[in-house]
Amino acid sequence: MIVTTIASTPTRIQAAGFGILLAAAAVALGVLAGHLTLNGAEQAIGWAATAVFAPLGLGLAVIDAREHRLPNLITLPLAAAMAIVVTAGAGVSGQWAALVQALLSGLGLGVVLMLVAMTGTLAFGDVKLGLSLGILTGWFSWTLPLTAVFAAYVLAMPHALALLARKRRTEAPAAAGPTFMPMGPYLVAGALLVTLATLLL
Predict the structure, then answer these.
(1) CA-CA distance, 164 to 195, in Å (whole number)?
(2) Long-range residue pairs from 11-14, CB within 8 A, at least 24 positions apart, any chain
(3) Dihedral sign of CA atoms 90, 95, 101, 102 in order
(4) Which whole-number Å values give the CA distances from 193 to 14, 89, 133, 145, in the listed order?
(5) Do residues 126 and 70 lie in contact, with contact meaning Cβ atoms separated by under 8 Å?
(6) Which pLDDT tens digit goes with each residue over 96-155?
(7) How far lies 91's CA from each of 30, 32, 87, 104, 165, in Å?
(8) Pair 163, 181: CB distance under 8 Å
(9) Where does the Prepilin type IV endopeptidase peptidase domain lie (predicted)?
(10) Which residues have C-beta within 8 Å of that of residue 13, sequence separation ≥ 6?
(11) Residue 155 CB: number of other CB atoms within 10 A?
(12) Radius of gyration of the chain (CA)
C-alpha cells in the first residue's frame, strides 16, 4: 500500500506535506534507535534508517521501472530524511563518527554517480538517489556504498544483456523497442541487499 501510494507522481503541495511527515518519522525513528543503541542494540540506527529508506526506495523503483524517471519531489526529501534519521540517532547515542561517515558517504557516492552520469550511462535521478543510498550504507562502513553499487550492476547485468541481445537480433533499432535500462530499481535492490546482509549476518 505504501509503495503503491509513493509510486504515483506527487504534486508539489502533496510533496510538501509528505516531506513534513517524512521528517517527523525520521526524527522519531532516529531518537528511538538512539535509545535502543544506548541499551546495547548497536545496529538499531541502521534498522531505523532502513525502515525510512525501504518503502520510499521501493516506490521510486516502481516509478523508474514504469516511467524511466526518479522525481526530485521524492528523491530529495528521502535524502533529507535519511540525514535526519542518522543525525537524530547519533544525537541520542553519541555515535558521531558513524554519523560523519554516513553523511560523507552520501556526498561521496553522489559525486561518484555524477561522474558516471556524465558519461551517459546513468541519469541524474540516479545521482540524487545515490545520496540516500550512500547515507544508508555508509552508516556501517566507508566501503559498503561502493559494494551496494557493485551489487546493483551485478543485478542489472541480465537485463542489460537481454537488451543488447534484442538490439543485435533486430536490424532496425526502432523495431527493437526501448533499449534504455532504468538503474533505479537495481540501485535500490543493491542497497537493501547489502544493508540487510550487514544487519542480519
Answers:
(1) 30
(2) 12/73
(3) negative
(4) 30, 22, 11, 11
(5) yes
(6) 999 999 999 999 999 999 999 999 889 999 999 999 999 999 999 999 999 999 999 999
(7) 9, 11, 6, 17, 51
(8) yes
(9) 53-159
(10) none
(11) 16
(12) 18
Contact 106, 123 (CB under 8 A): no
Q: Which residues contact 43 (CB under 8 A, 6 or more apart)?
A: 199
The span from the CA of 37 to the CA of 146, in Å, is 26
Query: pTM of the predicted model, to two decimals?
Result: 0.84
Specify the amino acid at residue 85: V
CA 132 – CA 152 distance, rounded (Å): 15
Average pLDDT for residues 70-99, to the nearest whole number?
Answer: 90
Q: Are 132 and 106 in contact (CB under 8 A)?
A: yes
Q: Are 78 and 53 in contact (CB under 8 A)?
A: yes
Residue 6 CA to residue 36 CA, distance in Å, equals 29
- Give the rounded distance of the alpha carbon of 182 from its chain centre: 14
Say if residues 193 and 154 touch (Cβ distance below 8 Å).
no
Q: How many CB atoms lie within 10 A of CB 23?
A: 17
- What is the identity of the amino acid at 26? A
Task: Please list, in sequence order, all residues whose beta carbon lies within 8 angstroms of the beta carbon of residue 14, skipping any fewer than 6 positions away.
Answer: none
Closest CA to 72 of 127, 135, 152, 3: 127
